[in-house]
DNA sequence: GCTGATGCGTC
DNA sequence: GTCGGAC
DNA sequence: GTCCGACGACGCATCAGC
């Protein structure tokens, strides 16, 4: 039984170095020595996860629950804790600082207990299993008990782990290399195994138990989702064609990525992060059954919402279907989804991911009626591809995905074989009216900015979204200074400022907002420049935003 | 039974 | 999802 | 080229509190 303390110490060392090689070495020598039944949890915990993927339960514990436990332990009031947390680098640091400042109350145990890796995992299990009335309280009781067994450093680790933000500069990429190094397996092989299984903690165990041989024997299994292949951003069609010369361009649909599995008449649908959403999507299941009957198949596609004329609806509609458990039949009728396939990964036991794209696509076209396929066209000239892009946009879609014709399907990889091309939209000049202090590496700065549009009738500013993207570190530094000078309210976290600074903001879509008074919100807002030349009075108006919102429906459907 | 807070997962 | 920073 | 860490919008389910 390995002490939890050792894992905490390892995490500390990992966070101390920025060298990737050093991180890999640290993790690798640690997991090499670990008993087989602890490897899985150690890997998960280091990556900021609690339960293994595939476990349908969740802890339902996050920073609010943690705060409540912290209150119980320290006896401090909200104000005292807020003061500490606001100055902390992140929640883990805040926990540690609060426990240092106030001598914590702890649950007393009958026997002296020491936290082990397995003990923590067992607590997580119990917390995840609790449901129903008063379960929040019982979860907090368990957390109190868990934190009672932890010293300050362990508490810091736990707080980070439970919020999923370890911030030690270690994710799956380096973990794969660490596993490879620990068990002397080529990194390539580890990576491939993780892709096919979608669960790195399981691969770590397999690697320890069976080495390279065990990983080599891994195949796609129906009903076990693999990671979907991803696309790299491209600025233009020209850039893509320079890279690929000739490529297949497919419509990029704005819906949910679905990996469909079928065998013996049973059908399952998995999302991009491999959760099973079959239950919410009976219409998609029917469609897949119509397409493939009871054949054994694994296919990749996108589901979008469509109006009676077959035009795509905005993403917001699709998301209403997604995790629904109640009134499923009714909502399926209100917002019908339609599946569009673009890849096939396995059929009748034959794995296809190592076949080149053009063969997989050809096979798909032979097997499936065109109406179920994402429209695709092979282009080698910019003009041809541009026309196809225009067609996609005219039909209300997001853009194009360009695919290298002879590329294999590399699950989980965002590489140079698939590119996404989204058109650049006009930007908006908006006013910063408030800001929030950042966390982690941004904790000294005002990092998240409230963006507002002006009401041309009243002159008031209305928030239409927040963004933390687009500025360089240096610009954050300067912006923080400027905003502090404009502040008329500052509680340590939220800073409200006099409308003065105008920024040019890019976005992908304007959505209806239930949260903002303006009724509108920007999707994927990011700052592209600071408009030193503009005054707030010259900024975008809320009236114009409404017009832009309506214009989006020129190509999109409405119910 | 309703409402708001919280957590989670999609993009 | 999207961006900048760091290796 | 690749990985990592900053965090955005929504909508659903679940639970607490009235």
Tell me what you see in this structure.
With 559 residues, the chain is of the alpha+beta class. It folds into 3 domains: 49-163, DNA ligase, ATP-dependent, N-terminal domain (DNA ligase i, domain 1, Orthogonal Bundle), CATH 1.10.3260; 230-418, D-amino Acid Aminotransferase, Chain A, domain 1 (2-Layer Sandwich); 427-551, Beta Barrel (OB fold (Dihydrolipoamide Acetyltransferase, E2P)), CATH 2.40.50. It is built from 20 helices and 19 strands. It has helices spanning 4-16, 20-33, 36-46, 63-74, 78-87, 91-101, 117-129, 135-148, 152-163, 172-182, 187-197, 200-216, 237-244, 282-292, 315-322, 328-334, 357-367, 382-394, 473-486, 542-551, and strands at 230-234, 247-252, 256-263, 266-270, 297-305, 337-347, 350-351, 376-379, 399-404, 414-421, 428-437, 446-454, 461-467, 487-490, 494-497, 502-506, 509-512, 520-523, 526-530. The strands form 4 sheets. Strands 11, 12, 13, 14, 15, 16 and 19 form a 7-stranded antiparallel sheet that branches. A 5-stranded mixed sheet has the order 1-10-9-2-8, with helices on one face. A 5-stranded antiparallel sheet has the order 4-3-5-6-7. A hairpin with a 6-residue loop joins strand 12 (446-454) and strand 13. Helix 1 (4-16) runs antiparallel to helix 2, helix 4 runs parallel beside helix 6 and helix 10 (172-182) packs across helix 11. The longest helix is centred in the middle third of the chain and has 17 residues, at 200-216. It is globular and about 70 Å long. The N and C termini lie far apart (59 Å). The mean pLDDT is 96. The chain binds 3 DNA strands through helix 4, helix 8, helix 10, helix 15 and strand 10.
């Amino acid at each position: 039984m390995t002490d939890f303390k050792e894992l905490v110490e390892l995490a500390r060392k990992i966070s101390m170095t920025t060298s990737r090689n050093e991180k890999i070495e640290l993790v690798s020598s640690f997991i090499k020595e670990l008993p087989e039944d602890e490897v899985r949890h150690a890997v998960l915990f280091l990556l900021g996860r609690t339960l293994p993927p595939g476990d349908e339960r969740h802890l339902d514990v996050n920073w609010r629950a943690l705060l409540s436990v912290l209150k119980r332990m320290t006896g401090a009031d909200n104000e005292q804790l807020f003061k500490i947390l606001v100055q902390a680098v992140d929640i883990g640091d805040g926990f540690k600082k609060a426990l240092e400042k106030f001598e914590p109350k702890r649950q007393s145990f009958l026997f002296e207990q020491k936290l082990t890796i397995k003990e923590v995992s067992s607590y997580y299990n119990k917390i995840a299993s609790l449901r129903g009335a008063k379960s929040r309280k019982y979860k907090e009781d368990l957390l109190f008990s868990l934190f009672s067994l932890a010293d300050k450093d362990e508490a810091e680790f736990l707080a980070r782990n439970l919020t999923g933000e370890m911030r030690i500069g270690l994710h799956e990429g380096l973990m794969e290399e660490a596993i490879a190094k620990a068990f002397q397996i080529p990194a390539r092989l580890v990576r491939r195994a993780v892709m096919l299984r979608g669960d790195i903690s399981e691969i770590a165990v397999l690697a320890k138990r069976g080495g390279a041989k065990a990983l080599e024997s891994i195949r796609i299994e129906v009903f076990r989702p693999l990671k979907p292949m991803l696309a790299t951003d491209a600025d233009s069609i020209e850039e893509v064609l320079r890279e690929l010369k000739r490529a297949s361009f497919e419509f990029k649909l704005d819906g949910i990525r679905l990996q469909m599995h079928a065998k013996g008449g049973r059908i399952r649908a998995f999302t991009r992060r491999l959760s099973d959403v079959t239950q919410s999507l009976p219409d998609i299941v029917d469609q897949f059954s119509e397409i493939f009957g009871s054949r054994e198949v694994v296919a990749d596609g996108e589901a979008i919402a469509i109006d009676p004329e077959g035009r795509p609806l905005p993403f917001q509609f699709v998301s209403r279907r997604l995790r629904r458990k109640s009134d499923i039949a009714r909502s399926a009728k209100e917002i019908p989804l339609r599946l569009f396939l673009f890849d096939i990964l396995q059929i009748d036991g034959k794995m296809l991911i190592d076949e080149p794209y053009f063969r997989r696509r050809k096979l798909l076209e032979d097997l499936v009626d065109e109406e179920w396929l994402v429209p695709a066209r092979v282009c080698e000239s910019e003009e041809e591809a541009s026309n196809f892009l225009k067609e996609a946009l005219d039909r209300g879609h997001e853009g194009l995905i360009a695919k290298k014709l002879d590329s294999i399907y590399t699950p989980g990889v965002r590489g140079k074989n698939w590119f996404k091309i989204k058109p650049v939209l006009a930007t908006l000049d908006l006013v910063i009216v408030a800001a929030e202090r950042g966390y982690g590496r941004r904790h000294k700065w005002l990092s998240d900015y409230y963006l507002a549009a002006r009401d041309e009738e009243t002159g008031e500013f209305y928030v239409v979204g927040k963004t933390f993207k687009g500025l360089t570190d240096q610009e954050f530094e300067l912006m923080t200074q400027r905003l502090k000078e404009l502040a008329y309210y500052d509680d340590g976290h939220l800073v409200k400022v006099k409308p003065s600074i105008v920024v040019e903001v890019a976005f992908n879509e304007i959505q209806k907002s239930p949260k903002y008074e303006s009724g509108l919100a920007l999707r994927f807002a990011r700052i592209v420049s600071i408009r030193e030349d503009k005054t707030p009075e010259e900024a975008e108006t809320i009236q114009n935003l409404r017009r832009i919102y309506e214009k989006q429906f020129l190509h999109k459907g409405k119910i």
